[in-house]
């Protein structure tokens, strides 16, 4: 079938994974208020959230908070349906104007789909499970991959940068004038940025809570072109044309960065580097990314499989306690927290992403690299500085427990004349894994009430028990020598338990 024929319209065809439902179309997302949340991997969820927010911003960006309240989740959904109806012809995956694709990039070398999927093993990479095998993708999966590549493409030599669409553009050449390796997508950057969104009672409310106003975009002072124009309304013709320059300076350009120019084919895609966006060190980042600008060098929150996102909650919410711009700041979280507290009884903060490694400019997911995600529900009535200070104190105390456990395991193996660094790290990881199942309870127990105080006492007993459990797991006491070291180095949590919870 010719790719010039208009077919597989993303508004009508099911391709978006929704938790507990399966695949749905763009039209169904905005028509059905029963869908609770997106499905797929964390990267797919982030990429789809950005696409849906781009549609929402294009359809009904409110001027200010009052206009946002008046719009409401239902009003936003109706506006998006009207918008999709008006731009229906621009959402065909194949045709003369394929969605988010560049027909002119057809001159680039054809790359296999598996080569641009971080979870798929290609070349001489070892296959550890069936999920790493390359398989044939249907049109819905190709659409999902295309949207993900717009911001989450990994750096390396898989792009054909010999094809340049803007005459005189040198961004795809190295110092010797030869095609260069591609840069990582702005949504992943060097190691894998952590993205966060507010979550409502259903998907439509989630989009409404994360919708930015014109005023908020102006106050952010990182998008000179404001909200901007959705790329399907005006696709760039090259890497540095006028439309490309406007996208790089607008909110739309961060929601859909077009960091790769693609053209889908039957067994692969023509693939080249697209728009080169500024990074967080240059003062520009996705609204969903948290960056700390208080030091000499900006610092971002990265994905860390050994430190799951729920442990970063106090960093994300640090502005509750702080004044000014100190600490990590996420435009998406900071702009939405107060409004969520005012219009909903319960909402959540979801954080996730993909950790990647790099070597000689080539990015890949290997070793301990993995997708991570966490979701924490918050009651609007409990949010405040007293609650935040209590939660921060509890998290700091848990951190001290983990450090103490690490030191005690190290001491145990030192008694055995053995290096215990790896096992001590594993013990600390196990402790945090055990604590995770109670974190939601801890969040709710930090309310400054007598009932919350008793709940915290009980949780401290549980967490102290987990320290002993992790210690016993990695420090055996089968021989007399081991038993002596085990008793000598056993953790003492009395100070933690005596502290006022």
In short:
With about 500 residues, this protein is α+β, with helices and mostly antiparallel strands. It has helices at about 25-30, 40-60, 65-85, 140-150, 205-210, 215-220, 240-250, 250-255, 315, 330-345, 385-415, 420-435, 440-445, 450-475, 480-490, 495-500, and strands at about 5-10, 15-20, 20-25, 90-95, 110, 195-200, 260-265, 270-275, 290, 300, 330, 345-355, 355-360, 360-365, 370-380.
Q: Using only CA atoms, what is the Rg?
A: 25 Å
What's the number of helices? 16
Strand content: 5-15%
The overall pLDDT average reads 92
Shape: globular
Q: What would you call the structural class? A: alpha+beta
Explain what you see:
The chain contains 16 helices and 15 strands. It is globular and about 75 Å long. The protein has helices at 26-31, 42-60, 65-86, 139-152, 203-210, 214-220, 242-248, 252-255, 313-316, 331-343, 385-415, 421-436, 439-445, 450-474, 480-489, 494-498, and strands at 7-9, 16-18, 22-24, 92-94, 110-112, 195-199, 260-264, 268-273, 290-292, 299-300, 328-330, 346-354, 357-359, 362-364, 371-379. Helix 11 packs parallel to helix 14 (450-474). The strands form 6 sheets. It has a 3-stranded antiparallel β-sheet with strand order 5-8-7, covered by helices on one side. A 3-stranded antiparallel β-sheet has the order 6-12-15. Strands 10-9-11 form a 3-stranded antiparallel β-sheet. The chain is of the alpha+beta class.
């Amino acid at each position: 079938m010719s790719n010039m024929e208009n077919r597989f319209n993303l508004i009508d065809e099911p391709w978006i994974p929704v938790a507990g439902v399966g695949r749905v179309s763009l039209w169904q997302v905005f028509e059905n208020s029963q869908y609770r949340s997106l499905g797929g991997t964390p990267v797919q969820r982030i990429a789809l959230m950005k696409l849906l927010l781009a549609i929402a911003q294009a359809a009904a960006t409110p001027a200010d908070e009052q206009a946002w309240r008046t719009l409401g989740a239902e009003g936003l959904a109706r506006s998006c349906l009207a918008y999709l109806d008006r731009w229906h012809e621009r959402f065909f995956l194949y045709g003369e104007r394929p969605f988010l694709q560049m027909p002119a990039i057809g001159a680039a070398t054809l790359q296999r789909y598996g080569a641009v999927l971080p979870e798929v093993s290609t070349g001489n990479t070892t296959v550890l499970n069936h999920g790493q095998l390359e398989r044939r993708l249907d049109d819905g999966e190709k659409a999902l991959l295309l949207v993900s590549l717009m911001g989450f493409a990994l750096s390396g030599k898989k792009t054909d940068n010999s094809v340049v669409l803007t005459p005189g553009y040198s961004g795809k050449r190295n110092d010797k004038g030869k095609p260069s390796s591609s840069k990582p997508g702005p949504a992943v950057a060097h190691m894998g940025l952590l993205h966060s969104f507010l979550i409502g009672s259903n998907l439509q409310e989630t989009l409404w809570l994360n919708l930015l106003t014109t005023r908020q975009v102006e106050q952010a002072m990182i998008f000179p072109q404001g909200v901007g124009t959705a790329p399907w309304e005006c696709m760039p013709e090259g890497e540095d044309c006028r439309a490309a320059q406007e996208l790089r300076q607008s909110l739309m350009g961060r929601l859909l960065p077009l960091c790769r120019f693609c053209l889908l084919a039957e067994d692969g895609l023509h693939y080249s580097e697209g728009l080169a966006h500024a990074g967080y060190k240059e003062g520009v980042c996705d609204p969903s990314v948290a960056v700390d600008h208080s030091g000499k060098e900006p610092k971002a929150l990265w994905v860390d499989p050994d430190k799951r996102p729920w442990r970063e909650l106090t960093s994300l919410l640090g502005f509750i306690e702080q004044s000014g711009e100190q600490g990590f700041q996420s435009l998406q979280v900071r702009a939405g927290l107060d409004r969520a507290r005012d219009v909903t009884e319960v909402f959540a903060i979801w954080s996730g992403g993909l950790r990647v490694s790099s070597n000689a400019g080539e990015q890949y997911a290997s070793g301990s690299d993995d997708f991570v995600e966490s979701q924490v529900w918050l009651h609007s009535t409990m949010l405040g500085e007293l609650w935040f200070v209590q939660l921060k104190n509890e998290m700091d105390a848990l951190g001290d427990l983990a450090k103490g456990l690490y030191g005690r395991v190290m001491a145990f193996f030192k008694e055995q004349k053995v290096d215990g660094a790896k096992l001590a790290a594993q013990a600390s990881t196990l402790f945090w894994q055990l604590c995770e199942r109670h974190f939601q309870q801890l969040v709710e127990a930090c309310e400054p009430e007598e009932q919350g105080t008793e709940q915290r006492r009980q949780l401290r007993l549980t967490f102290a028990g987990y320290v002993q459990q992790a210690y016993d797991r990695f420090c055996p006491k089968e021989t007399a020598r081991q038993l002596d070291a085990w008793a000598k180095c056993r953790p003492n949590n009395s100070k933690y338990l005596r502290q006022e919870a």
